[in-house]
Amino acid sequence: MPHEIVVYGVLIPGLLPIFLAALVVMAVIDTALARRGLYRKVWHPSLLRLALFTCLFCAGGLLLIR
Q1: Which pLDDT tens digit goes with each residue over 2-37?
Q2: How confident is the model at residue 57 (pLDDT cuts 50, 70, 90)?
Q3: Which helix (H) or strand (E) holds 45?
Q4: Alpha-carbon distance 20 to 23, whole Å?
Q5: How far is CA 29 from the centre of its chain?
Q6: Rounded CA gap, 18 and 5, in Å?
Q7: DSSP 3-state assignment of 44?
Q8: Is residue 1 pLDDT above 70, yes or no?
Q9: 43-54, pLDDT tens digit by residue?
Q10: Please, are residues 15 and 65 in contact by the beta-carbon 8 Å criterion?
């Protein structure tokens, strides 16, 4: 995994693209779950969102390492 990526001469952390991709995927999943009404059945919706984002971000990072 590269520690830093050069974009137009600017060094950015290697996990930043994974973070942004996880954020976009999380937004799509969050919208789908909200439309289905799942958040009314969950004890703490914010905690579910955080856990889902953490799982997506970690999975992306692990795929990048492999």
Answers
A1: 678 888 988 888 888 899 999 999 999 999 999 998
A2: very high
A3: helix 45-65
A4: 5
A5: 10
A6: 12
A7: coil
A8: no
A9: 999 999 999 999
A10: no
Q: Would 42 be classed as within a structural domain? A: yes
In this structure, what are the phi and psi dihedrals at residue 43, rounded to the nearest 5 degrees? Answer: -65, -50
Domain annotation covers residue 43? yes
Q: Is the pTM of this model over 0.70?
A: yes
CA dist., res. 46 & res. 53, Å (int): 11
Residue 55: inside a domain: yes
Domain that holds residue 26: 14-65
Q: How many domains does the chain divide into?
A: 1
Rg of the Cα trace of the chain? 15
